[in-house]
Amino acid sequence: MVRAPSREPRRPANVCVARAIGEMSGKPMSDRTPEPDDLLALEARLEDMRRREAAKNRKPPPSPMGIAYRFTAEMVTALVLGGAIGWGLDRAFATRPVFMIVCFLLGAAAGIRNVVRAATELNKAAQGAIPPPADDDDEEH
Prior knowledge:
Largest sheet: none
Radius of gyration: 32 Å
Number of strands: 0
Structural class: mainly alpha
């Protein structure tokens, strides 16, 4: 790839190297030190920008229909997998209902455990989204 010619005159290589060595030696790039008021104003602007970005990137809470589908998917998947594994073991070892019943019950237990875990996770997320109650001075009197 060819670079377009620059209209600025080229600096000699030794000037570029000297400048790079000076920047790496720990010398400040500017002789001016920032004012504390400027730094405080910059910090306030950065904090305001971070707050706006965090509010913009926040995910909306799940809908009740989404929660119901998640619980259903967790339970049905565990039951089907448990039953399928039991059916496969019964076929492999020629023991008709034994492994299917045992694995189906283990799948049911795993499904219930997954639903409880999902509900706990959703409750924690909901508690974090709700602001804490405001302290009313009127109630203390």
